[in-house]
Amino acid sequence: MPRPFDSLRGQLVLLIVAALAVAQTISLWLFVDERGLAVRAALGFEAAARAANVALLLDEAPESLQPAILRAANSPLVRFDLSDIPAVEQGTHADGGAVEARVRGLLGGAQDREIRVELHEVDHGVLPMPHLAPEMAEMHLAMMRGELSAIEMQLSIALSDGQWLNVGTRFERPPLQWPWTSFVSFGITAAIILVAACWFLLTRLTGPLLRVSRAADRLGRGEAVDPLPLIGPSEVRGLTRAFNRMQARLTRFVADRTRLLAALGHDLRSPLTAMRVRAEMVEEEETRESLVASIEEMQEMVEATLAFARGMASAEAYETVDLGAYLRQLQADMIDGFTLNAVDSLRVRLRPQSVRRALRNIIENAQRYGGGAEVTFRHDAEHVQIHVADNGPGIPEPELEQVFEPFFRLEKSRSRETGGTGLGLSIARTIVRAHGGDVALSNRAEGGLLVTVTLPLETEPDQQERSIS
């Protein structure tokens, strides 16, 4: 069973979605941080501007009006007070001196006036804003959902009369007002739209690639494959165009070879027939029989050679058959028969006549040299194996592969009655390999030879096309 993200399409979709999620997370974090900094800077600069204006008024106003100016300047957010000592012992400049610079600029830029600034985080559990009534504080906390991160700023400005204007304020960074339900629904919707768009675009890439792959596999097994449509990106269209050209060349090559073989067979049969006629006219019986036997052997070898060469050029169509019923029919058709131990029903796609010929050659070899044949089959998820076993002497290990070579015979007498032409196994392997399988030989431990015919389990072409989309 294929894994969900084993395909190119699945991996690319996963990569794009993961990259987008990481980018969105980083952007959200930066947005929240920048938002907090912007809010705090705005509130801090506002308080600094008010403090500078109040300091200017106190410097110019008579002492009797100073209390009134302080009362008018006070608010729940910012508190002003006059004192002989500064509330800030020493400026920390945690803000890099931005607040001090703003106050000094509003006061005319004089460098001789001392200005002290202190910024610090406020511990949790305090009122959200200084000097708020408890009822208003609770209401504020309820509105802000209790998620406050406050910074307190203390500002001390030296006045011209020697007193200090002490300013205290606190400002909070409002929590991110984004309900989780909205965030989750937005994420799911964006993910669905993104996956759907990526799936559509990647299908235009992977779909044609899968068609080329499966068409190449069918072409390698000798099936007729129609030219593939030129769809998808330019690179994929170029690959498809190259495959169509290769297929046309191979088809033309096979057709030319088939015509050559047909002409060769015709040209060879005519002189052999003439030689047979002339041999029959020889008066000496022993010589005549020897010539006729040699000519008949030549004719049989020519026919076998042509049949072997045509093994890959067969135009027989593929069919889906029940393997158990197929073998039972082969058992009934063969004169000598064979033992069949196959009861399972298994659907296999093959060329019925070609595979029948290959199995017949193998079984006849087992009957001729091994005293009979026993046929079984088993399968896994991708292949089916047909086993043909006999009880003969087996084959020497060094010659297990050599017997597949054309005209190789273990029996050296060259007699057609005992050794055949030496093309049976070659033809069988040629046919099976044209199906994408193979034929292998091995000696059994209990004696005899075991021939294993392996064929791929292929789905129907229309099922393959549906799986692409």
TrEMBL record:
Location in the cell: Cell inner membrane
UniProt keyword Protein biosynthesis, yes or no: no
InterPro entries given in the database record: 2C_sensor_his_kinase, HAMP_dom, HATPase_C_sf, HATPase_dom, His_kinase_dom, HisK_dim/P_dom, HisK_dim/P_sf, Sig_transdc_His_kin-like_C
Keyword Cell membrane attributed: yes
Regions that span the bilayer: 12-32, 180-202
Residue ranges occupied by any Histidine kinase domain in the UniProt entry: 263-459
Reactions listed under catalytic activity: ATP + protein L-histidine = ADP + protein N-phospho-L-histidine
Source species, domain of life: Bacteria
Principal location: membrane
One Gene Ontology molecular-function label: phosphorelay sensor kinase activity
PANTHER family given in the database record: SENSOR HISTIDINE KINASE ENVZ, SENSOR PROTEIN CREC
Protein name in UniProt: histidine kinase
Organism: Cribrihabitans marinus
